[in-house]
Write a structure and sequence with these properties.
heterodimer; A: 208 residues; mainly alpha; Fumarate Reductase Iron-sulfur Protein, Chain B, domain 2; 2 domains; 10 helices; 0% strand; B: 741 residues; alpha/beta; Rossmann fold; FAD/NAD(P)-binding domain; seven-stranded mixed beta sheet; five-stranded parallel beta sheet; 18 helices; elongated
């Protein structure tokens, strides 16, 4: 995995495009972008993106591998689907953005401090551990995402809400201690492990 | 027809009977218009009404007919009488639909109607039904100049329609540039892959067709005559000259590729690995389905870059300012030459605006699917690198300067029309915007013996047309149709469609000529200009100003009208300073007498008169449509339709001013570069002539505001009546004309 993040990519060649097509969800659509810019103009968070989707597609074709995969841009996507609805070439832009983010994460070169990434990791860890989401742990875990002090403050602030939920049986405090998860969680762990191996093997093909 | 017997027919339908005193109108026609009788009818366009008129004509009761009913543009099928001169007195659109339906407006409405009846009677008195053209000849043979895809298609289409054709090709083979291509852009769904050119099959069809004659290595050294009776000298391969007669001519002389040597910045000429699109076609033909190799060392091409708009769509000196239309599709097709064989070859298309006409959008998508990379950018320079070429460009999306190494660079250069001699170049020393037409080889294509020059006039950038949108193929030489890239830049698919159209236009022209009828836009018109020889001063203004080159000079230097070349616009009539040119049904007098026939109220009555001379192509229909929408205008206006503003003789304006008119308006089509004039130059000439009328105004000590010239489009339904209203205001402001009696 370590050498994957320093692949040399030639400019304006097909190789990074092919890497994206092979590893990124819906990546085969990237080449179909016709650079009209409607996605960039439609994004409600547009001004906050380092590189809007249109530019990302061009950067992929231009072979700017590092710049894209280390960028925070695609982590900005809130899945509002405005761009998909409006794209004249019908590119699944939202999915491609998540796909790119995911690929960068797999390669371990996604921006470490990105809050979306942090949230995604906590969510994924929580989910895969038991095969389904342990809500109390996930919820309170998120309070501590940005440090212990802030976590304590938020927990205290939210305590009355939690008490209320407990009363109406929407919140089970024992889940902190005993959470069984789903039946075949061992198998789930195996499946995920295997899938990861396959993904990394595919990515490694482009590592040379 | 010695004796003039005018029959006036007043319609009472469509509200005319209620709004106007038709009895009084009929009385005016007989008393003032000198009609032998005036009949009223409840619905004149009905069968009984038309029958009544027909009987009168057949019985010899009348030989001139005034139809006081609706506009000349309405009910043309019903009111169709060939044997007599007809004047349509526009009471419906011209009077009742433009005036308010109110008791207080009744007097002015009636006066308007009466004036129009007077005008029609005066007009028809001066008209005779057009005689058949004595010069008319039928020749079914079509001459096709050029044996490329356009010429071949035109010839085949003419032959399929039953008209023999002769192809004169300058080169030693048929097929033109299209025959030099490896594959062509797809023309059938799914428009995804290059296809066979089909040129060989087309050539085979031509060669097998007994209706078609082909001259190779031949040129047209002289063309004379007119539609229906063209004569062309063809200098053939053997050195002999053959003279043949033709009914019509299709000029499909095609294009010359822009000389890429004029683009040293892109390394053309410095490295054999920089080619233009035709150069790549050659490489692809050499490869014959195998890998395309670069010319310098025979290495298989692994990376290729296409520079779009090379030397075109640029204002730089020596570049083409226009888009050649086909090059984006062509580059996509050529990138597929590489991708289809080996998807690992890197193909980069550098464009600023990808323009893919026709079904090119599908081809573009297919190219993307195949992995062709499209980059919005501007090429700066192509240099020789250590191993191949180094291309520097600016990526306009990522906003950065880039340098890439390439095995091969293809320049998408443009098309230069093979339009022969620019006959107007000497007239317009320099175009107003300083832009110069690309230099075409100054060898005439048609060698016309017309007074106006040996080739077809250009529209813009050296392309031969008269209007790309409104009247395609219609050049300014009747019976000669330009088609293919000599008309405007186009690809094969468009050229085939274009040539088919041109062949049909040629057939239409020769059939019209056979019957002595005019071609577009007055198609079917039998009238043609004549002149009184004794009055002519040989000033040559008519021969110079005729937009269609229809007038030559005879041995005694009098104008020589070639009726079949004439479009019947009357520009010669408007130009003639001694007013000796006339049509049977349209002359200085037909309009002049209408102007005089209008009842001119005395100054004290405070009823001014505004004369509106409106072009029948756009301005008059606009006023008609305004009437249909009940958009009114001043009841003091008197509108006379003219064939073209170019036919307006300044004597009409002078006479009208002397006769006491308070205001005069000329309404013609848009002039200038984006002209809409159906006769190309008519409106412009009229504007020019009218600028000289201001001298007359000064002499008569009249206000300049009294004469106005306007450009009116057919869509100016609201604006045209407003212009008349504005003139009425002006007249009110400057006061009545001092020339009233």
């Amino acid at each position: 995995m370590s050498d994957l993040d320093t692949v040399m990519v030639k400019k304006y060649r097909n190789n990074f495009l092919k890497e994206v097509e092979a590893n990124v969800e819906e990546g085969e659509w990237v080449k179909m972008c016709m650079q009209c810019g409607v996605c960039a103009g439609s994004c409600p968070l547009g001004p906050y993106w380092e590189h809007p989707p249109q530019e990302i597609f061009m950067m992929i074709r231009a072979g700017k591998r590092d710049e894209i995969l280390r960028s925070s841009s695609m982590w900005m996507c809130t899945s509002c689907y405005n761009c998909i609805v409006r794209c004249p070439r019908e590119l699944p832009i939202t999915h491609i953005m998540h796909g790119l983010a995911h690929y960068a994460e797999r390669l371990g070169i996604a921006p470490k401090q990105n809050p979306t990434r942090k949230f995604a990791r906590i969510f994924w860890g929580n989910l895969t551990k038991a095969g389904r989401v342990n809500e109390p742990v996930l919820g309170v875990g998120l309070y501590f995402m940005n440090g212990f002090k802030e976590g304590i403050r938020t927990t205290l602030k939210m305590a009355p809400v939690g008490m209320g939920m407990m009363k109406t049986k929407r919140f089970n405090p024992f889940a902190f201690m005993f959470y069984r998860g789903c039946k075949g969680k061992k198998d789930i762990h195996k499946i995920i492990k295997k899938a990861r191996e396959l993904e990394l093997a595919k990515a490694a093909k482009f590592g040379g | 027809m010695a004796e003039v017997k005018i029959g006036a027919y007043v319609c009472k339908g469509c509200g005319l009977g209620e709004r106007l005193d038709t009895q009084a109108l009929a009385a005016i026609a007989t008393r003032e218009g000198k009609a032998v009788f005036a009949k009223e009818h409840d619905v004149l366009c009905s069968q009984s009404g038309v029958e009544m008129i027909r009987k009168d004509i057949e019985a010899g009761e009348v030989n001139r007919v005034v139809l006081a009913a609706c506009s000349r543009r309405a009910k043309t099928d019903a009111f169709h009488f060939d044997t007599v001169a007809v004047s349509r007195c526009n009471l419906r659109e011209g009077v009742i639909w433009t005036q308010p339906d109110a008791d207080e407006a009744r007097e002015l409405t009636q006066e308007m109607g009466e004036d129009y009846v007077r005008m029609s009677c005066a007009e028809v008195k001066q008209m005779t039904p057009p005689r058949p053209n004595e010069q008319a000849e039928r020749n079914r043979h079509v001459l096709v100049v050029g044996g490329g895809i356009s010429g071949l298609t035109a010839a085949v289409e003419a032959s399929r329609a039953g008209y023999p054709a002769t192809i004169v090709e300058k080169g030693d083979a048929l097929g033109g540039w299209a025959a030099k291509l490896w594959r062509r852009v797809p023309t059938r769904a799914p428009y995804a892959d290059p296809r066979e050119t089909g040129v060989a099959e087309l050539i085979a069809e031509v060669e097998a067709d007994p209706n078609l004659t082909v001259y190779l290595n031949a040129t047209v050294t002289r063309t004379s005559g007119a539609p229906g009776r063209f004569a062309a000298d063809i200098a053939t391969e053997s050195g002999k000259t053959v003279t043949e007669n033709f009914g019509a001519i299709v000029q499909a002389s095609g294009f010359t590729p822009y000389d890429a040597n004029r683009l040293p910045e892109f390394g053309y000429g410095k490295s054999p690995d920089v080619v233009d699109q035709l150069g790549l076609e050659k490489l692809a033909r050499q490869a014959d389905g195998g890998p395309i190799k670069r010319p310098s060392d025979g290495k298989e091409v692994q990376s290729v870059l296409f520079i779009q708009c090379a030397g075109q769509r640029s204002q730089a000196e020596g570049h083409l300012s226009y888009c050649s239309g086909h090059c984006c599709n062509t580059s996509i097709k050529q990138a597929m030459y590489f991708k289809d064989r080996n998807p690992d070859v890197d193909t980069l298309v550098l464009y600023t605006d990808l323009r893919t006409p026709g079904k090119g959008e599908d081809l573009y998508r297919s190219g993307q699917r195949k992995g062709v990379i499209f980059t919005k950018g501007v090429a700066r320079e192509v240099k020789l690198g250590p191993d191949g070429l180094q291309v520097q460009f600016r990526d306009l999306i990522l906003d950065q300067e880039v340098s890439v190494d390439e095995d091969l660079v293809v320049l998408a250069t443009g098309m230069v029309a093979n339009s022969g001699v620019d006959i107007e170049a000497s007239l317009q020393k320099e175009a107003p915007n300083g832009e110069q037409a690309p230099a075409s080889q100054e060898v005439s294509v048609l060698n016309l013996d017309y007074r106006q020059g040996p080739d077809l006039p250009h529209l813009v950038h050296g392309f031969q047309d008269s209007h790309f949108i409104c009247f395609p193929y219609e050049t300014r030489r009747t019976g000669i149709y330009a088609t293919g890239p000599v008309r405007r830049p186009m690809d094969i698919a468009q050229a085939i469609e274009d040539a088919t159209g041109a062949a049909l236009k040629a057939i239409q022209a020769l059939e019209n000529a056979a019957q002595g009828r005019a071609a577009h836009p007055r198609s079917g018109d039998l009238s043609f200009p004549s002149f009184h020889r004794d009055g002519c001063t040989q000033c040559k203004r008519c021969t110079v100003e005729c937009p269609f080159g229809a007038i030559d000079e005879d041995e005694q230097r009098y104008p020589l009208f070639n009726e079949a070349r004439c479009r019947r616009c009357g520009t010669c009539m408007g130009a003639c300073p001694v007013r000796v040119i006339y049509f049977d049904n349209y002359s200085i007098d037909t309009v002049g007498q209408q102007i005089k026939a209008v009842d001119m109220p005395e100054e004290s009555q405070e009823k001014p008169r505004i004369l509106v001379l409106a072009c029948e192509n756009d301005a008059y229909p606009a006023l008609d449509m305004a009437a249909m929408n009940r958009v009114g205008y001043s009841a003091y206006a008197r509108v006379i339709p003219v064939r073209c503003l170019g036919s307006v003789n300044s004597i009409w304006v002078t006479d009208a001013l002397n006769g006491g008119y308070d205001g005069i308006m000329l309404m013609g089509c848009q002039k200038g570069d984006n002209y809409q004039c159906h006769f190309v130059k008519g409106s412009e000439l009229a504007h020019d002539r009218m600028s000289k009328v201001y001298d007359t105004l000064e002499q008569l000590q009249l206000e300049k505001d009294r004469v106005e010239t306007h450009e009116v489009a057919i869509t100016d339904i609201q604006r045209a009546p407003r212009l008349i209203e504005a003139m009425a205001e002006t007249v009110k402001r400057v006061g009545p004309s001092p020339f009233k009696f």
